């Protein structure tokens, strides 16, 4: 398929420090058990993805459920627009699951803004119990992992998890307001404007026709010394490596057991670094590996190294990937979203960027690979 072609993006001289030959090889690896197996295999019974105009014109644009043409969506501020997107995604996923809001036991959600503003305000309007989470761009896999745990344990029957981001709100918080007109370095990524939600339900006879969550891996914080707010791909690649290596060494699966291995938003540079890091550990990622940040925008859209943000992998998972799982085209998918956990001030104070990657394994209702 055309979207599996690796987009050719610029690799500036400033990035020589992250080339395969000089990037510090992994020296430590945690051998503690980290695999969470869901023996009751919770099902993903509903999903919804909402994106902005720029995202709708990318390689996977036709798969998104709703595409907005106005980045403010009729609201007075970009922040209100993001709240509206998340609300739309949550309610749409509930409708897709043939449920009512009253049927949802709890909502697990997060975003990029301070104090999870978007999630809290959306949950206020939706009116269900809320668990706010922050995993930066790894929020969707963190939400899926926690939601599946709540359902698998028997505490709840229907849990919805969601994530959102907006280019304008993220830029204003983490970098510079759009009005400033700051020039972006060639290794930067473009924060995705979008929101997505998944409804996780108990495995019953009525839900067995839906994709199932079979296992998850909580991430380990990694930090290889990157302190550039724009260089997210290089910062997050080691976290993806750690979780992916854990998956292949502790789960019983290897890289060939998956129809698709997808990372969250490393972009072109970060996914190239991940391939190099995995090769140093004796694992060669093939054509079944893609990165959401590398496929959400076309190279001609001039988004530098690709997409990022909570909504980057969340929207692709809840559209393109879920469609393929639901119709049996994909039998088993490993989904590893990555997050850079810096604050708005930490890098300006000389701190490096701690990163994390959570993983979930999802199988088609038609069986594993």
Describe the structure in your own words.
The protein has 369 residues and is of the alpha/beta class. The chain has two domains: 22-34 and 209-363, Stage V sporulation protein AD (Peroxisomal Thiolase, Chain A, domain 1, 3-Layer(aba) Sandwich), CATH 3.40.47.40; 42-201, Stage V sporulation protein AD (Peroxisomal Thiolase, Chain A, domain 1). It is 30% helix and 20% strand. It contains nine helices and 14 strands. The strands form three sheets. It has a six-stranded mixed β-sheet with strand order 1-9-14-13-10-11. β2 (43-51), α1 and β3 form a beta-alpha-beta unit. α6 packs across α7. The longest helix is centred in the first third of the chain and has 19 residues, at 78-96. The protein is globular, with a radius of gyration of 19 Å. The chain starts with 35 loop residues before the first strand and ends in a 6-residue tail after the last strand. The model is unreliable at 1-27 (pLDDT under 50).
Feature tags:
369 residues, alpha/beta, Peroxisomal Thiolase, Chain A, domain 1, 2 domains, six-stranded mixed beta sheet, 9 helices, 14 strands, 30% helix, 20% strand, globular, disordered N terminus
First and last CA, distance: 19 Å
Radius of gyration: 19 Å
The assigned structural class equals alpha/beta
Helical stretch tally = 9
Name the strands of the widest sheet in spatial order.
Answer: 1-9-14-13-10-11
CATH topology of the largest domain: Peroxisomal Thiolase, Chain A, domain 1
- Overall 3D shape: globular
Second-tier CATH architecture of the largest domain: 3-Layer(aba) Sandwich
**Share of helical residues:** 25-40%
CATH superfamily of the largest domain: Stage V sporulation protein AD
- In N-to-C order, the SSE pattern is EEHEHEHEHEHEEEHEHEHEHEE
């Amino acid at each position: 398929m055309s979207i599996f072609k690796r987009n050719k993006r610029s690799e500036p001289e400033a990035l020589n420090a992250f080339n395969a030959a000089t990037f510090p090889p992994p020296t430590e690896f945690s051998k503690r058990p980290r695999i969470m197996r869901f023996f009751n295999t919770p099902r993903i019974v509903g999903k919804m993805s909402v994106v902005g105009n720029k995202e709708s014109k990318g390689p996977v644009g036709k798969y998104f459920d709703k595409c907005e043409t106005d980045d403010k969506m009729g609201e007075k501020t970009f922040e209100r627009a993001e709240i509206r997107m998340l609300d739309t995604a949550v309610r749409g996923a509930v409708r897709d699951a043939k449920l009512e809001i009253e049927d949802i036991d709890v909502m697990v959600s997060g975003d990029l803004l301070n104090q999870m503003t978007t999630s809290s305000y959306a949950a206020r309007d939706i009116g269900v119990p809320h668990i706010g989470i922050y995993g930066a761009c790894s929020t969707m896999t963190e939400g899926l992992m926690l939601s599946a745990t709540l359902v698998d344990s028997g505490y709840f029957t229907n849990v919805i998890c969601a994530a959102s981001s907006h280019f304008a709100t993220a830029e204003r918080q983490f970098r510079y307001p759009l009005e400033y007109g700051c020039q972006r370095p060639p290794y930067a990524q473009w924060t995705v404007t979008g929101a997505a939600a998944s409804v996780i339900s108990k495995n019953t006879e009525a839900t067995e026709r839906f994709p199932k969550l079979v296992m998850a891996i909580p991430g380990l914080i990694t930090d290889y010394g990157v302190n550039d707010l724009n260089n997210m791909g290089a910062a997050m690649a080691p976290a993806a490596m750690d979780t992916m290596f854990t998956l292949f060494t502790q789960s019983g699966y290897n890289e060939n057991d998956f129809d698709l291995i997808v990372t969250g938003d490393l972009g072109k540079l970060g996914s190239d670094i991940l391939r190099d890091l995995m090769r140093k550990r004796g694992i060669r990622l093939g054509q079944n590996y893609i990165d959401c940040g590398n496929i959400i925008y076309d190279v001609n859209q001039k988004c530098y190294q690709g997409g990022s943000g909570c909504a980057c992998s969340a929207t692709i998972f809840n559209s393109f990937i879920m469609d393929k799982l639901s119709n049996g085209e994909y039998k088993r998918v490993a989904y590893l979203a990555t997050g850079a956990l810096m604050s708005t001030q930490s890098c300006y104070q000389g701190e490096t960027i701690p990163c994390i990657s959570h993983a979930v394994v999802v199988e088609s209702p038609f069986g594993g690979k």
